[in-house]
What we know:
By secondary structure, this protein is mostly helical. The chain folds into two domains: 2-56; 63-283, Orthogonal Bundle (MetI-like fold). Helix content is 85%, strand content 0%. It is built from twelve helices and no strands. The chain has helices spanning 2-17, 19-52, 64-72, 75-112, 114-129, 132-143, 147-171, 175-183, 188-225, 233-243, 246-275, 280-283. The longest helix is centred in the first third of the chain and has 38 residues, at 75-112.
Amino acid sequence: xxxxxxxxxxxxxxxxxxxxxxxxxxxxVAVLAPAGxxxxxxxxxxxxxxxxxxxxxxxxxxxxxxxxxxxxxDWTHLQPMxxxxxxxxxxxxxxxxxxxxxxxxxxxxxxxxxxxxxxxxPYAVILxxxxxxxxxxxxxxxxxxxxxxxxxxxxxxxxxxxxxNTLFGLQSVDRAHHDLFTLQKASRWAxxxxxxxxxxxxxxxxxxxxxxxxxxxxxxxxxxFFKQGSAGIGTLLDVYRSRLQSEDLFAAILLASLFGVAVFxxxxxxxxxxxxxxxxxxxx
Length: 284
């Protein structure tokens, strides 16, 4: 009797607790965990600036408050960064949109027949394995050294995750669902639009989230190499590095990182809205 009572007690307590306290605990953890990691990161930053570096070398890693005072509170420093970030954002989003169209379309084509996948997928793998810095000079020769070349670099670097994830999602549809569409004598277009693409949405959005960060990286790399026209955030990074403007350099890096996080968060939200609660990715 004693053993049964001890075993049943936690169940009664958990049931009596109800869903509301559980939700409150999860909400607190969701807020406190990122806040705690941010405090730790800032503490480590201060430790590197003041404990590991001598005063004469502190310009290599300026403390956070100094970066904030010099590069953020001073509008003459912040304005060119925001203008450059706006241009980089245009390049990254344009490249991501083009990569999404070509990547998803290419994956759909490859999913139609095994011989198409065997013929086209190796080239997508090659595109992913060739270092982007080796292709950048050719992109400049073919498309010039302005906005178009920067977008092309973003497309090249963001294309493969979209192809790979979309193709995986299309090929992972349950066989029983295919059999049901076969019994209903559904056309290939009906099978694709009503079964395969909806079932592949979680994988497609996974590819979009991955490619969104890569597109930002591609835009910054393009800024560093293609310097015709308005300066992007990558161009400013190169300028700040050459002038040893450490505060501006750290601020520009943080702005670029925050933009990448914002794009990632946007596609995470869109994924939850599009997928809903039927898939585990929409409930997490």
